[in-house]
Amino acid sequence: MTFAPALHSEWIKIRTLRSLCGALLAVFAATTAFSALAGASDTSDPGFDPLSTALSGVVPGQIAAISFGAMAVASEFHEGALRLTLAATPRRGRWFAAKVTAIAVPALVVGTVTALAALTAARAGLGEAASGLTVGEQVRGVVGCGLYLTLMALFAAGLAALLRSGVATLSLLIPFVLVVSFVIGDTTGTVADFLPDKAGQVVLSQTHDGALGPWTGLAVTALWAALALFAGGWSLRRRDA
C-alpha cells in the first residue's frame, strides 16, 4: 500500500473513533472555557500579560491534546490491531508516517481554531486591558498555540509508540506537565526553559525574559516531539507487532 491509501486508512480510524473525536472536542472546550474565565481575572497586577492570560486555557487544554495523540497510537496495540494494520501496510515506516500525519493535521486545525476562539472569548472579558496587544502578537499567539498543541499531541504519540500503552503515556505526561514541570521550574532556573511544555508556551506570552524566544521555544518543543517520534518509530521497527 502506498502512502496516500495508508493515510486515508488512518484518517478513517481517527474520525470514526469516538474517543479521539471527543479528545479533540475537549481541546476546544477546555481551552476556550478556561481562557474565557481568565478574561474575567484581575488585571491590576504589574506583571499582567494580556496574551498569556487570554491563552491560559492551553494549560488544561493540552491534556486533551496529549490524550488525543496517545490514544490514536495506543489503539493499535489493542487486541492485535497492529498485526492487521501491518498486513495491509507491511512497511512500518510508511504506516507510522501516515499515522503521524493523520494525527498532526486535525490537531493543527483544531488547535488553531481553538486558539482563535479562546483569544476572542478572553478579549471580550479583558476589555481595555487587552488593548495593548498588536495584531502581530495576536497572530503569533494563535498560530503558535495551534503549533504547540500539535507538537504536544505528536510528543505523546511518539511516547505511546515507544511504550505501547496509552495508560503508561498519560500516566507519565499528565503529571509531568501539571506538576513536575512547575516544580523543576521553581528549583532549577533556566534548565526548565528547555522542557517541552515550558519552551513551547513562550510563544503564548506577549513578553518573555527567559533563555528562549517564542519561535526558538517552539523549536525546542518540536525537537522533543521529533525525538519521541524517532524513538517510537525505532521501537516499531525492532519489536514484534
Question: Which features would summarize this protein structure in a list?
Answer:
10 helices, mainly alpha, 241 residues, elongated
Question: How would you sum up this structure, described in words?
Answer:
By secondary structure, the chain is mainly alpha-helical. The chain contains ten helices and no strands. It has helices spanning 3-16, 18-38, 50-54, 58-74, 81-88, 92-126, 135-163, 166-188, 196-200, 214-238. α1 crosses α6, α2 runs parallel beside α6 (92-126) and α4 (58-74) packs antiparallel against α6 (92-126). The protein is elongated. The model has no long low-confidence stretch (mean pLDDT 88).
Query: Total number of helical segments?
Result: 10
Shape: elongated
- Gap from first CA to last CA: 18 Å
| Residues in β-strands, percent | under 5%
Number of strands: 0
Sheet bearing the most strands, described?
Answer: none
* Unreliable stretches covering 5 or more consecutive residues: none
Mind telling me the C-alpha Rg?
18 Å
Instruction: Characterize the quaternary organization of these chains.
Output: single chain
What class would the helix/strand composition place it in?
mainly alpha
